[in-house]
Every structure is written in structure tokens, then in C-alpha cells.
Task: structure prediction
Amino acid sequence: MNPVRSLLQVFGSRKMAALLILGFSSGLPLFLTSKTLQAWMTVENVDLTAIGLFSLVGLPYSLKFLWSPLLDWFTLPFLGRRRGWIITLQIGLLIAIALMGLQQPKQSLQLLAINAIAIAFLSATQDIAADAYRTDVLEPLEMGAGAAVFVLGYRVALLLTGSLALILADQLPWSSVYLLLSLGMGIGIIATLFAPEPKQVRPPDSLTAAVILPFGEFFQRKGVVQGLLILLFIILYKLGDAFVNNMSTPFLLQTGFTQTDIGAIQGGMGLIATIIGTLAGGAFLSKIGLNRSLWIFGGLQAVSNLSYLLLAQVGKNYQVLLLTINIENFCAGLGTAAFVAFLMNMCNQRFSATQYALLSSFMAVSRDILVAPAGSLAKSTGWPLFFIISILAAIPGLLLLPFFAPWNPKPVAVTRPGLEEEEDLWGTK
Result:
């Protein structure tokens, strides 16, 4: 690939358009089993502790590496190694999200949880296929732009399901809201049909090989100690953000803002901030390198939680709410763009489904498991102290960066895993 290719050409390609919509398709189900579902449960007067524990519905996101080897090994008889899986799962998600509209939180939390777990399982499996597709289809010089565009689509979906859904919920029953949002999966289905096919890479010869080889190859390439540090870093890097994201909607509702207030601000200025943050993250990553991006953007992620602390102090204030939503979305866009590029760079293309699923599963540990007591914590500490704790929770991940992503990496040329003829553009060694 020509290294002087312009950013406009990169961002404007058919490949990037497909990644944008596939990112949207990946992001659409997440809030429908987390933040948006929490809002529905909050207005239905479900206990705050139960709302916090509902983050465990997302357990499939943390365990998806267990079945990811199947997607590396077995190819469905249509649309290639990755796209066949993607479109099958998208159809399943359209049906499962529509069924969510039939649930009644006040009558049966158990049925609600079962439906939500089904969505989470299908969504996590779609993520396996979509992440592998993105890793396989991108050339090294496209990684920053590809990560940014995919994350942008993902964030647009989160804003749709976390903002427009709340606005609609003030006008329509929640059941109708879920039925309408299920139709959004149709956009992903169309994009999958027209997405370009990645270069063919020889898959593992057997399911056993698909299970064993990815894990052994990762630790052989990185070393056991550094490999374990990388996994611990992935768990901790976004832990501070995870605490805030898990309880931000109940916090804003309890502070006195309406669902329309939250949805309108997140869907307006918040969307603009997300777009700017995500694209800026991809652009800056290509200028300053992956290592320094992880340092800078990780620090900004932690500092952004101060805006929630300020809002907790001043109470219902629309100007501070606008500031808080913009800061959080902008910094999340920056950090996620670098983090996704980091995860992709850790993968061997032959095992990209399994290795990316393993790495992103560790990321989901903080988002879905470590934050499960967040509701109880907020209930016992109060919101201001809760947000201070969320800032402190971001520090351990940053302290691990010197071990494998030093600020000034040694100028040693290494290959990108699985592409022996190409140099390591991100300086992770």
C-alpha cells in the first residue's frame, strides 16, 4: 500500500464505508441489554441493586473467546469466511431484539434476563466475526483509519440506542421502542452483502488446532510474562470508564433530568463530540504512534470522569450536563480508537477471530463483571464519592503501559503478526 495515500482516500474507500456500517451493527445491541435497559428498569421502579447486577447479562462478551475458534475454523457455505457468519448473526439479532419488546420488567425479571442474555450471546458472536473481518481486511497503513471508522459506527449506534431510544420512550411504550430499534440491524445486513472480501488466509486445519494454536502462538510471540501483563492491561485500561458508563443513566435520571433531556443532549452535541474524538483519535494515532496514543488518551479518559463529579456537585444543571456529555464522548472516542488499533495489532490473521475475541473478552471483564457491584457501591457511597472511585480505578491500567508500550519505544523493525513481509507501523516493541 502506498504510504503517501491521503487520509481522504483512506476514509472514503468502499472498505471504510463497510466498516462504518458494520461498526454500527456491532454497537446496536450493546445498550439494549445495558444502559437503555437500565433506563427502562429505572422508570419501572426496579431496585437499584438489581439494575447494577443486570450488567452480568453481558457475560457472553467476556466468555466469547470460548466459542471463537469455531468461527476461525468453520466457514459457512455463503459470503466467505467472515461475512457468512456476520449476516447469519445479524438476522438472529433482529429477531431477538424484536422479541425484547414483548417483555415486561415489572412482571418477570427472569424472562427479561433470558431474552437479554440471548441478545448478548448473538451480539458477542457477531463481534467475534466483525472484529476478525476488520483485522483481516485492513492493510497496516489503514489500521488507524479503520479502527476510527469502525468505532465511529459503533458509537453512533450507542448514541442511537442510548439517546434516540430515551427520547422515543417519552412518547412511545418501551416495547415499541425495542421493535423499532430491531429494524436497525437491517442496515448491517445490507452492508454485509456488499462489503469487500478480505484476502484469503489458510484457516486452522482442525477445530482442535483452532482452539490450541491461537493461545500458544500469542504467548510464544509475546512471552508469558509480557502476555499476561497485556491481558491485565486490557482488563484495567477502561475500568474507570466502565464504572461511569454502567451507572450514568440511573445517575442522570435520579439527578432530575428527563429521558428526553438525556437523549437530546447525547444525540446532539454528544454525537458531534464522538465523531470528532473518534476521527481525531485515528488521525493522531498515525502521527504520534500507538504507544503514546495509549498514554495520552488513557489519561484523558480518566480525567473525563471529573465532569461527572462536577455534575454530581451542582445537581440538575443543563450547561454542566452538556459539558459532561461532550467531554465523556470526546475522550471515549479518542481512547477507543487507540485501544481497538492496539488489539488488532496483537493478532495473527490466521487466528484473528480467536485472538481478538480473547483480547476483547478481557476488556469486557471490566465492563460487565468488575462493575457489577457499581449500583450497590453508588448506593452506599453517594454519587460524588462514586465518581472519585471511578477516577482512581483508571490508574492501574496506565501504570502497566511502561512494560510493553513505553513512551519512547526502541526503533526495532518487527513484522505485523501474520504478515511477515510488512513492518510494524505501531511501535509496540
